[in-house]
Design goal:
It is built from 14 helices and 12 strands. By secondary structure, it is an alpha/beta fold. It has 3 domains: 189 residues, 3-Layer(aba) Sandwich (Rossmann fold), CATH 3.40.50.300; 86 residues, Helicase, Ruva Protein, domain 3 (Orthogonal Bundle); 56 residues, no CATH class. A 5-stranded parallel β-sheet has the order 2-3-4-1-5. Strand 3, helix 7 and strand 4 form a beta-alpha-beta unit.
């Protein structure tokens, strides 16, 4: 009986160490931390928005790392929708996104173009296409932010050419998506209607980010930051008046969050300049930087809510005990002397001041 011979083959396979990439070094290369830090410094609050931007950045960064490992390239959708009230930081976030996408290699230029209906849609036949094309060409390699995008679509107007602009945007979103990111922005409810009326547009928008209104505390922080950037500072009582001003301003229509705060700060600085120029012939360091209640109280918002009452050293001449003080002395009259029983005595010093009715 013939014995079977078994031949054992041994393969000498030398496995190479898998490729390793230092994440922190790669983040430095793509300037990830730097861009996210700028976003955090530029915007007060908005934690939910910042979290979404970090999530988008993470998937884009991981896509780059996967490519370095030889894995298949996955191009994530980058077109976005920003919804919320004016002045909530939509343009700032769009600018930071353009910078991030350029650093990661998704955009060649990384600039931001802001456009509205007037920049895209014409009033006559044949003029909309050239206008829209011109804006798109300027935006190539960067981000195009279309503000109040819902105004592009007017279904009840047969002579409106907004639909033509939308069709061109749809083509570019699909064919040029490797070098142009579109962001549609506006109020939340009108934007929902806008997307429902344009299913093709909605399907191409990958990221919907809602921008909440700023809280009272966040608006106060924004104001202080703006004053500091201009090298001004609020006095203690001016801070109290400013908070009351915020309460009133937020109740008015067309309040624009940080944008309105910027206007308030600018007007306070204007009033300070006017006050100092009229009060004194000598400038001091304090007079140049010190925002007083007077620089805020002159706003028309306060005309119906404030009244003037006399205050003396003895106390207040107040009949309505529900009235409470916001801040103390703004100015005082020159001392006068009166004759009481043959003796010349100083009259009580009277300090006119403003108080808020039913302040709580």
């Amino acid at each position: 009986m013939q014995k079977k011979k078994w031949i054992v083959l041994t393969l000498d396979v030398s496995l190479k160490d898998p490729k390793k990439i230092n994440i922190q070094e790669l983040k430095k290369t793509y300037k990830i931390n730097e861009s996210l830090q700028k976003l955090d410094e530029d915007l007060i609050g908005l934690s939910s928005v910042k979290k979404r931007i970090q999530e988008i950045t993470a998937i884009l960064f991981m896509d780059k790392v996967r490519q370095d490992f030889g894995l298949s390239k996955y191009y994530p959708g980058l077109h976005m929708s920003f919804t919320g009230s004016p002045g909530t930081g939509k343009s700032t976030v769009a600018s930071r996104m353009a910078e991030l996408l350029q650093n990661l290699g998704y955009l060649t230029r990384g600039h931001l173009i802001v456009a509205s209906r007037d920049d895209l849609v014409a009033q006559f036949v044949g003029q909309t296409a050239p206008k829209t094309k011109d804006v798109l060409e300027k935006s190539m390699g960067g981000v195009l932010l279309i503000d109040e995008a819902y105004y592009l679509y007017k279904p009840n107007n047969e002579k409106d050419y907004g639909g033509e602009a939308i069709e061109m945007l749809l083509q570019v979103m699909e064919n040029k998506r490797t070098d142009l990111v579109l962001i549609f922005a506006g109020y939340s409810e009108p934007m929902k209607m806008f997307y429902r009326s344009n299913p093709g547009l909605s399907s191409r928008v990958a990221h919907h980010i809602d921008f909440p209104d700023y809280s009272r505390e966040e608006l106060s922080i924004i104001a202080k930051k703006l004053f500091q950037e201009r090298q001004y500072e609020l006095s203690f009582y001016a801070e109290e008046v400013f908070l009351k001003y915020l309460d009133l301003r937020c109740q008015l229509p067309l309040f624009a969050n940080a944008r309105s705060i910027k206007n308030i700060v600018n007007r306070a600085c204007f009033r300070l300049a006017s006050r100092v120029m009229g009060e004194t012939g000598i400038f001091t360091y304090k007079s140049l930087i010190h925002i007083t209640p007077y620089d805020l109280i002159l706003s028309t918002l306060f005309l119906k809510g404030l009244k003037t009452i006399p205050m003396t050293k003895i106390g207040f001449n107040i009949t309505n005990m529900d009235t409470k003080i916001i801040f103390q002395v703004l100015e005082y009259e020159k001392l006068n002397y009166i004759n009481i029983s043959g003796n010349l005595m100083r009259a009580p010093k009277v300090f006119p001041t403003f108080v808020w009715k039913n302040f709580s």
